[in-house]
Amino acid sequence: MTTMISERTANKVQEIRTRSGIRAYLINEPTLPFISMSFRTPAGAAFDPVGAEGLSYMATALLDEGAGSYDSQAFQAELEDNAIRLSFDADRDAISGSLLTLNATREHAFELLRLALHEPRFDSEPVARVRSQILAELDRLETSPNFQASRVWFEQAFASHSYGRPTRGTIASIKGMSKDSLNGFVRSRLARRDLAIGVSGDITAAELSTLLDRTFGDLPETVALPAVGPATPILGQTYILPLPLPQSVVTFGTTGIERHDPDYYAAYMLNYILGGGGFSSRLMEEVREKRGLAYSVYSQLYDTRFAPLWLGSVATSNAQVAQSIALVRQEIEKLAAGEISEIDRANACTYLTGSFPLRLTSNDQVARMLVGMMAHDLGADYLATRNGFIEAVTLEDLKRVAARCLTQPLSVSIVGAPEGIEAAVTLRRKDGIRQADEPVLAD
Amino acid sequence: MTLALNETGTDKSAVHLFEPESCTLANGMEVVVITNRRAPVVSHWCWYKVGTADSPAGKSGLPHFVEHLMFKGTRKVPPGEFSKIVARHGGEDNAFTSLDFTAYFQTIARDRLPMVMEMEADRMVNLALLDEHVYPERDVIVEERRSRVDNDPGSLLSEHLSAAQFLHHPYRLPVIGWMHEIQSYTRADVEDFYAHWYAPNNAILIVSGDIDMAELLPLAEATYGKLSPRDVPARKRLVEPPQLAARRLELKDSRVRQPSLIRSYLAPSLNTPDPVTGIGGGASKARSYALEILAEALGGGATSRLYQSLVVERGLATGAGTYYRGTALDETTFRVVAAPRPEIPIDTLEDALDEVLAQTLEMGVTAGEVARIQKRLVAEATFARDSLGTAARVFGVALTTGGCIEDVETWPDEIAKVTPEEVNLMAREMLRIERSVTGRLLPDVAISERAAA
């Protein structure tokens, strides 16, 4: 039924290749006089040099803090006064950015982006300010249970791979980040050939092509990135980071599946059944609906480039967190043992295909979808073909892929003052935070 | 849809933001449609004019608990099935509660709209609760409170700040409720509250997306239109006595690594009558629009006064900003926030913050400053029209907080009309220390040092 929905949009994807070889996907949507653009390049925090952890995070935070003839305040005023929204971000795999501009300010918006990429100033004031902001953030995150649960999971699973290093850096690496590292950042990471770009809004392919050449055309064709190889996570462990909290926050996870693996869509459906589907998932049913153990419990596939992952999270009172983790393990084991029905498959299929068009209703959403399609090499016809991949998955596929993927050992990290957790490695804190055996805050 | 929005913000002719259609059903339920034909998708919302500020005494947050229990079944839709049915039809759904309203929504393919309207109308009057579903859900709320508030010292401070700002008016309550009162909720509490407040004449239907009023109205009459109106209590809340003394609080917590500072002032909402004339609407709304401009001038972005002075020029803070929203049924707050850089004493930061405020009062915001902000806010309104959810949400919030459709539609015009004199008048009226609460979030040094020793 709902497969039809996306076709109106799907058939409108235009593939652009500019004179300087830059590629982009565009959907021309003339209803409102603005455009949204997303771009990314596969050179994220995993490529930060040893000792310069957080370089991607700090440099991207500084790209809109002064460029060309504009100092930091002048650059920000240009953005604000013209209602231009420009932002940059860095995760483990990629450097990304987004630009939102009205038609009336479009030329200026792309010029500001060009300046940010080609002539960032890294003046002393914004460098000192952003350094201080990141240091304060790192310190604050020391007691953020969600952040720490995830950090511990990655640090332990990837002890000898750059995925285990902190994407936002350490106190020492941020304090020591040199101006040379920052200055070299764009030139050493951004290449025309690797850029993926998605645009949605009131612009033609010819207009966009000209702007893209002008904005990105002076980037090098390629860059030589440091070698980062595939990683195998260390699994099967339980870690506790003690913090005086009334509720423990848990990250759990195992190996996921490559984006281009033929079994990807079966795994994607399995994740929906396990913990991806809001109130429809088994984890939600067992942990929240039946027992009231948690407000939030979910799982998600991460198609991270060097080690695909299947991660999840749950937050439960300290006294009951062991029960919640046992339920998570039980539901994963049930799926691995093939306890999946045709009804499960059909429900996952109608949701995942029917809800796909809901993710394509605004320029921001469409631009993000398009850049993802290009970055993951899914093809310009993906919006039209994607639901077919989901519909093709059989019950036998689901059982086979569950046995393949969900039989690997799980690693669990717990932050809080959990009770009754056996065979866990308790990590020691280096700071003066009181330990979990002292009175906790609420009831 | 016309593209009447003027990018310079100087055009004083009527600017129509969303161009909705509206009507009222015979049973008193208001209906608003915002047509957006981009995709064959609709966003369907049912808003109730009741929120945590309408909690019964001793049952803070009960409206939020009721919101959770609205998913626990009727005679037609078994417990827990509502969201699963929506999902099986490729839709997404959720609900939320604030101090003034409760809202439920589904985003779904256009051809499934009749189904979700039928289910939403059904649970407006036919909720059938069993203890076995009510009490585990109460435990869920306990965990939700721990996740949102108790696990986060910043949220605890914010909660205390509201309680200190409002001695008497129910805006003092946390939306989710106090823990000991959450733990006291009973099924009878829920049923009583539901019977009082859930009725078509206390609800608003808002649909945005691939539909217009001619298409929606027959569906609305066949579902919600069949429900009978009921007597609904007036939202008469306790009246806050005048605040005559500045209030201060410090929350010390061993989990705090970076201190922060919040200053909250009592401030009129769009619905607050003019204090001199006692008259609401019209001119009194201009007071709130002036405060929106003031919030931007002081703390809206990297070139605002607070950010520029405290963060950039003087290097005292890692961040600084303001928070003000005029859409509230009763008098609300204007908040100023800042966090010191690691080596800066919080006293130094508070003094500097007070200097920025004092200077703004003394010299006033400038005409150029106001014009810049007006141009930006009006231009950004174009972006808001792109999202189905934003359109529905903006009308829902307005209509449950004493506002009307016209308030939303004329917002760009009204913002463009504000003069620097009006902004400065409101700044002088509102930024008075005796009508403020200052909250500090601080590390519990004594405990930290003891543990380290």
UniProtKB/TrEMBL annotation, chain A:
UniProt keyword terms in alphabetical order: Hydrolase, Protease
Highest rank taxon of the organism: Bacteria
GO molecular function: metal ion binding; peptidase activity
Pfam families: Peptidase_M16, Peptidase_M16_C
BP-aspect Gene Ontology terms: proteolysis
InterPro entries in the cross-refs: Metalloenz_LuxS/M16, MPP/UQCRC_Complex, Pept_M16_N, Peptidase_M16_C
Domain Peptidase M16 N-terminal: 27-170
All residue ranges annotated as the Peptidase M16 C-terminal domain in the record: 177-342
SUPFAM superfamilies membership: LuxS/MPP-like metallohydrolase
Spans traversing the lipid bilayer: none
Name of the featured protein: Zinc protease
Originating organism: Arboricoccus pini
TrEMBL record, chain B:
GO molecular function term, any single one: metal ion binding
GO biological process, one term: proteolysis
Transmembrane helix found in the keyword field: no
Peptidase M16 C-terminal domain span: 185-377
Segments forming domain Peptidase M16 N-terminal: 31-176
Protein name in UniProt: Zinc protease
Annotated family: Belongs to the peptidase M16 family.
Family annotation (Pfam families): Peptidase_M16 (PF00675), Peptidase_M16_C (PF05193)
InterPro entries given in the database record: Metalloenz_LuxS/M16 (IPR011249), Pept_M16_N (IPR011765), Peptidase_M16 (IPR050626), Peptidase_M16_C (IPR007863)
SUPFAM superfamilies cross-referenced by the UniProt entry: LuxS/MPP-like metallohydrolase
Alphabetical keyword list: Hydrolase, Metalloprotease, Protease, Zinc
